């Protein structure tokens, strides 16, 4: 079912009225109308499009979905697409929800792909900033942008916390190679997906703020500049986290190589120590007479020789940090 609101002079005057009454509300000079459609069919959206004169290409983009974040300009209205994001901490997967909006001089029509977009939270954001509604559709659009960008920030912050936990595993005394590799891949994949959502928003917000477009009144320009600053910070933060995840992967490989070198040194050192008694007992096992042959002194001499050389090699390897 569609959700609707009508503001008059910045005050909420009507709510949840039928879509066929949108034109009646828009006929009033001071009216500002919001219409929300969740997963509409093309025929359902076409009714609103015919009533408001929306472009056919924009209507198709809204119904098909999976658009990149963008702002398209048409004669009489603009078309806007963005994504809210949320990080699933357990799986490391980024959950996205697409929202599109038709922007006319006195109406905002939002189109959601499904119920995953938290529309009630957006309404609370608008109600908390009710004093801005008097500035027209730009105020509703600002609330939508601010809500979406705040979600980007929360996702980036969650990713940052997960990467910090990954660093702790990386330098733990017990190896966690499989966990670090799997988690690094999951977070890197989420960061790539988040970058596709966050990076285009910089161009979108910058275009909205252009004075020749006339979408944002001067009274709302500081609020849009604040949103634009948040977009830049989220973009830079995402880029730095991508580099950090790549660094973690490279560091993990380096640590594995160093650990393998240490193991190799230890195994080689112990093999050298074990080779001493093997060589001596092999020598004394010859079937020819030698000093101490068939005497107790020969056994004592060989045992002392094994013990002395083994201890000497052990001390030498310890000094070189091979053991």
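Sequence proposed for the structure above (323 residues):
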């Amino acid at each position: 079912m569609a959700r609707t609101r009508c503001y008059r002079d910045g005050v909420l005057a009507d709510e949840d009225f039928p879509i066929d009454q949108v034109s009646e509300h828009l006929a009033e000079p001071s009216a500002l109308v919001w219409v929300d459609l969740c997963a509409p069919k093309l025929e359902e959206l076409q009714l609103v499009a015919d009533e408001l004169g929306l472009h056919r290409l924009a209507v198709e983009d809204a119904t098909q979905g999976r658009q990149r974040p963008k702002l398209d300009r048409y004669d009489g209205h603009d078309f806007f697409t963005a994504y809210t994001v949320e990080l699933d901490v357990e799986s490391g997967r980024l959950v996205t929800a697409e929202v599109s909006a038709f922007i006319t001089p006195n109406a905002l029509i939002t189109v959601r792909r499904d119920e995953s977009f938290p529309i009630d939270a957006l309404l609370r954001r608008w109600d908390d900033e009710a004093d801005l509604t008097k500035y027209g559709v730009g105020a509703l659009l600002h609330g939508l942008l601010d809500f979406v960008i705040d979600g980007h920030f929360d996702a980036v912050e969650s990713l940052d916390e997960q990467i910090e936990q990954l660093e702790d595993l990386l330098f733990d005394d017990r190896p966690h190679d499989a966990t670090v590799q799997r988690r690094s891949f999951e977070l890197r994949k989420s960061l790539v997906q988040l970058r596709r959502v966050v990076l285009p928003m910089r161009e979108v917000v910058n275009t909205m703020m252009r004075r020749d477009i006339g979408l944002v009144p001067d009274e709302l320009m500081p609020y849009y500049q604040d949103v634009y600053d948040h977009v830049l910070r989220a973009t830079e933060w995402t880029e730095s986290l991508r580099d950090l995840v790549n660094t973690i992967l490279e560091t993990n490989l380096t640590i594995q190589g160093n650990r393998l070198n240490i193991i190799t040194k230890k195994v080689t050192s112990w093999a050298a120590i074990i080779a001493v008694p093997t060589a001596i007992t092999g020598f004394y096992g010859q079937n020819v007479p030698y000093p101490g042959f068939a005497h107790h002194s020969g056994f004592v001499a060989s045992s002392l020789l094994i013990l002395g050389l083994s201890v000497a090699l052990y001390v030498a390897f310890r000094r070189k940090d091979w053991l």
